[in-house]
């Protein structure tokens, strides 16, 4: 694991160093998804455990502590996240084939469960290595289920000595207010469009401007999307939004029922946001390639109706992870959308 602080977060890194003199017991880093928050926080965690911290606050990368950290086996470091993310690093974490196979036999959870929080007790009750600090990184914090969140809250209310909690969140509105009140909040922001665009071009991303716009200005999300195969699917879905109707809704739901529902809801949310912005005299943020289609639709709908549709889309996003029937979910979403223009 290397020190990864992306160019647009360098100023934030310098601001963070000012907290080192009097560190709180818990910091909650928050900001848009896809800007490098997790890399930023893990770099900070490594630096807190480093035996030879550099003048700029970065870990040295060469001491024993950094060596353990890079292998994910530092005795004073724990990373808590949903099972679905743990699969990415199974090999790095030294798991045997038997354990990986057992995990693969069931669907990995998207939640952080209470057992994962309880497991920290043993970790926190053991003396730290070389009488130093112990660090817990938890992300995304909104993945905590209710029981896990309440269990974490008890720990934050009575923090163990020499223990630092670093939480990462994409959505503060999904966290318990009591957890928010127990953490020092630290905001991480999107880069400017030009800064994000320059970085994507350095990564040789074709149509970087398009990808960056579609991901709301988040460079890492744009890079990830550009390397996937979602372009054709997204365009098919956006074309269906361009021509709202019952028949279009039914046919689209049938063709795209294998696509993750969360992706479709996200694409529709952004489409509605662009409609709302256009109707309010603002710019098209996400889909400038569809300016003609959005312009035509904006003339068929009023601002209040779009605002209501946006709220409904946000509510739908909250349940999109577990639809009983993907096809019926998509049908209902698109039929409801088509009625906006009747």
Task: Tell me what the structure shows.
- The protein is α/β, with parallel strands linked by helices.
- Helix content is 49%, strand content 7%.
- It is built from 18 helices and 5 strands.
- A 5-stranded parallel sheet has the order 2-3-4-1-5.
- Strand 3, helix 8 (146-157) and strand 4 form a beta-alpha-beta unit.
- Helix 10 runs parallel beside helix 12 (219-226) and helix 14 runs antiparallel to helix 18.
- The radius of gyration is 22 Å and the shape is elongated.
- It starts with 9 loop residues before the first helix and ends with a helix.
- The model is unreliable at 89-104 (pLDDT under 50).
Give the overall form.
elongated
Overall mean confidence score, pLDDT? 91
Query: Whole-number radius of gyration?
Result: 22 Å
Q: Beta fraction of the residues?
A: 5-15%
Please summarize the sheet with the most strands. Answer: 5 strands, parallel
Q: Kindly report the spatial arrangement of strands forming the biggest sheet.
A: 2-3-4-1-5
Class computed from helices, strands and strand pairing: alpha/beta
Strand and helix layout:
Blueprint: H1 10-17, E1 26-30, H2 37-49, H3 64-70, E2 77-80, H4 83-86, H5 97-104, H6 114-118, H7 120-124, E3 134-138, H8 146-157, E4 163-169, H9 177-181, E5 184-187, H10 193-202, H11 208-214, H12 219-226, H13 231-242, H14 246-255, H15 261-279, H16 291-298, H17 303-317, H18 326-338
Parallel strand pairs: 1-4, 1-5, 2-3, 3-4
Helix pairs in contact: 10-12, 11-12, 13-15, 14-18, 15-16, 15-17
Can I get a quick summary?
By secondary structure, the protein is α/β, with parallel strands linked by helices. The protein has 18 helices and 5 strands.
């Amino acid at each position: 694991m290397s020190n990864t602080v992306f160019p647009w977060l360098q100023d934030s890194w310098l601001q963070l160093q000012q907290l080192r003199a009097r560190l709180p017991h818990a910091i909650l880093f928050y900001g848009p998804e896809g800007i490098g928050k997790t890399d930023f926080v893990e770099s900070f965690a490594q630096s807190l455990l480093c035996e030879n911290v550099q003048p700029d606050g970065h870990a040295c990368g060469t001491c024993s502590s950094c060596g353990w950290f890079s292998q994910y086996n530092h005795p004073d470091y724990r990373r808590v996240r949903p099972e679905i993310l743990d699969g990415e690093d199974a090999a790095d974490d030294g798991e045997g084939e038997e354990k990986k196979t057992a995990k693969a036999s069931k669907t990995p959870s998207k939640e952080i469960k209470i057992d994962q929080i309880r497991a920290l007790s043993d970790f926190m009750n053991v003396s730290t290595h070389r009488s130093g600090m112990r660090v817990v990184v938890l992300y995304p914090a909104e993945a905590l289920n209710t029981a896990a969140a309440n269990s974490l809250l008890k720990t934050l209310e009575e923090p163990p000595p020499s223990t630092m909690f670093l939480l990462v969140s994409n959505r503060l509105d999904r966290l318990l207010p009591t957890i928010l009140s127990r953490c020092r909040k630290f905001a991480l922001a999107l880069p400017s469009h030009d800064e994000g665009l320059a970085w994507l071009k350095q990564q040789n991303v074709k149509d970087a401007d398009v990808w960056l716009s579609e991901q709301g200005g988040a460079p890492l999300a744009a890079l990830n999307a550009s390397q996937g195969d979602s372009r054709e699917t997204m365009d098919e879905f956006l074309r269906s939004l361009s021509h709202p109707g019952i028949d279009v809704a039914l046919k689209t739901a049938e063709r795209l029922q294998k696509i993750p529902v969360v992706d479709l809801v996200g694409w529709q949310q952004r489409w509605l946001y662009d409609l709302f912005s256009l109707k309010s005299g603002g710019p098209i943020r996400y889909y400038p390639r569809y300016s003609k289609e959005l312009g035509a639709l904006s003339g068929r709908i009023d601002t209040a109706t779009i605002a209501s549709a946006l709220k409904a889309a946000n509510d739908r996003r909250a349940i999109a992870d577990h639809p009983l029937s993907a096809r019926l979910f998509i049908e209902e979403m698109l039929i409801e959308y088509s009625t906006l223009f009747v």
